[in-house]
Amino acid sequence: MRTLLAIAFSLLVLVPAWAEDPKPAVPMPPVTSRSELVLVPTMVRDKSGAVVSGLSKGDFILLENGAEQKIAVFEEIRTSAIRPSRPPLPAGEFSNYLVREPGSQRITIIVMDAINTQFADRAYAREQILKFLAEVAGSRDPIALLLLQRSGARVIHDFTTDSTVLAKALRRLQPGDGAPVADNEETLPSPTTSNLALSNENAQIASEIQQLVQMLDNMEQNYLASQRMMAALLTLDCMQQIARAYAAIPGRKSLIWASGGFPFSIDDLSRLVSGSSAAVPSYLSDILPRYENTWRALNAANIALYPVDVHGMVMALPGAERHISATGLKSAGQRISITHLDTLDTFRQFAEMTGGKAYFNTNDLVHAFRDAVDDSAAYYILGFYVAPEDRKPGWRKLQVKVQHPGAQVRNRSGFYMMPEDKDKNKTKLNEIALALSSPVDFTSLPVLARWTGTTPNGDKKRAAFELILPANAALVDEADQNHLSLEFQAAASLTTGKAIASNGRSVEAHLKPEALAQVRSAGVTYKGVLELPPGEYNVRFVVRDNLSGRLGSLAAPLQIGP
Q1: How far apart are the C-alpha atoms of 405 and 407, rounded to whole Å?
Q2: How many other CB atoms are found less than 10 A from the CB of residue 229?
Q3: Does 248 lie in the same domain as 383?
Q4: Domain's final residue, options 363, 389, 412
């Protein structure tokens, strides 16, 4: 079987790629080492907030879990406001390639979180974003605008340096778009039987009523838990999609998350990650793998999170405290204050873990948006290697010290070392499903797709396509007999969203020297077909490198005539 797979794969790679391929944004050298490079973008400011420039590698000390690490990568970065763009392609060809620009780019992604934000707060956030876009008109900073709603992430407008275009797109958004999955406010008290005048005659009836009330209360709690889980999954999926979509853009990216809160508490997540025996909501235990993958994706894509609390100024009520005691039931107002404090704690932790900043208790959201955009203008990039034998899973703390008078340092507070994947097939299927459903293309693996013709097949037609990976894009493990593992998927749906057809294939091979040379020089080409009746289709292609976990995806619209 291994021989047959190698022969089949050699037939695939013998199909040459096009003569002049558009180059991916980041070169793809052959990778065989299992050492992991950890990059730590570091902001250095003086007491007035001005950038401290001109520092050398010797001015920095990098610590991982308190142990000093050898700085293997060091660079002072000055970013350019350049809009990510795609290279021009012939008709019938599509790619997720990005034009390679010199230096590091400065880009900003703004997400309006509708599922975790109440209607009035969404309206306020929309108003503040429009005001911000009006103020930055002419700045030419590339900004993309997304909406997180019940159906998942939605692109309001892709990257543009014209903020007036973004404002027009935002104004077209209907007020009711993206209704929350679950209400963030305190739920009304459940009905009780305390006002029943009990007697011997109605005691049994009252008992039955109490059981019914308890059953309804349990149903409500289960419903709210399921809604919170749905909100949590959608939130994490959106973060993953954004991370994977912009991974190929060099430099630090700012992700502004305009929201009323996250559907999980940082304390609960911290206990999950540390393996604490303390009780946490059951729905969070179910999403722990998604949570871990999200942090890894954000770190790998060099994305800093800037949560912005769209409640505006919130005054904490007297007596509100961080935790509700076991015996002292707080008032509804105090419970809301405690919920809000949880939100702020979670915002702060998410920002610190990615090297961003959290903004809250302010009615000047415009300043928060502007500050987040400017934050990536200048920074230092430090990096160190994690040795292959040092793979213990879990969260690892990072600290950067700078030997410069008055320097104020901010960097991401850690990184997550993933545990060994015990169900690689499930992980693969989940990631491919995420890529197929994403409104944005994943870019960590460069892919080009082309339609090569249609042929009749009864009342349908066979639409032939090619998926092409450029030279050295796929990881080949030379230590394991030139092992290569790829997954190709294609899915066609009507413009209404209804799925119609799919095509998929796994390629596992240990390449012979001549096949390896072909992969190195000409890349990999996969040929497939989709059988479809006449009509207009949205087709998404996904390629996954199973050895590195990198994904590439793209959309290729297709029209089949009668």
Answers
A1: 6
A2: 20
A3: no
A4: 412
Which CATH number characterizes residue 369's domain? 3.40.50.410
Tokens of 89: 């392609």
Verify that 385 and 529 share a domain, yes or no.
no
In a domain, 282, yes or no: yes
The two tokens of residue 310 are: 């769209």
- 387 and 315 belong to one structural domain: no
Residue 50 and residue 11 in one domain: no
Nearest to 225 by CA among 179, 284, 268: 284
Residue 102 counted as domain residue? no
Cα torsion 447, 450, 456, 457 to 10°: value is 0
Q: What is the pLDDT along the chain (562 residues), one digit of tens a residue?
A: 333 333 333 333 333 232 233 343 333 333 334 468 899 999 999 998 899 999 999 999 999 999 999 999 999 999 888 888 888 999 889 999 988 777 778 899 999 999 999 888 999 999 999 999 999 887 888 999 999 998 889 999 999 999 999 999 999 886 555 544 443 333 333 333 333 333 445 566 666 666 666 666 556 555 566 777 888 889 999 999 999 999 888 888 999 999 998 887 666 655 555 555 455 566 566 677 788 788 888 988 989 999 999 987 665 544 444 443 333 334 444 444 555 667 778 888 889 989 999 998 888 899 999 999 988 889 999 999 998 888 888 888 999 999 999 899 999 998 888 777 778 888 899 899 999 999 999 999 999 999 999 999 989 999 999 999 999 899 999 999 999 999 999 999 998 888 888 999 999 999 999 999 989 999 999 999 999 999 999 999 999 999 999 999 999 999 998 8
Element (H, E) at 342: helix 332-354
Residues 383 and 361 both lie in one domain: no
User: pTM for the full model?
Assistant: 0.79
Please state whether beta strands 143-149 and 408-411 pair in parallel, antiparallel, or not at all (unpaired): unpaired
Residue 318's SS3 state is coil
Question: Do residues 301 and 238 both lie within one domain?
Answer: yes
Give the domain range for residue 402. 36-79+377-412
Q: Phi and psi at residue 479, in whole multiples of 5°?
A: -70, -15
Residue with structure tokens 């991974």?
Answer: 247
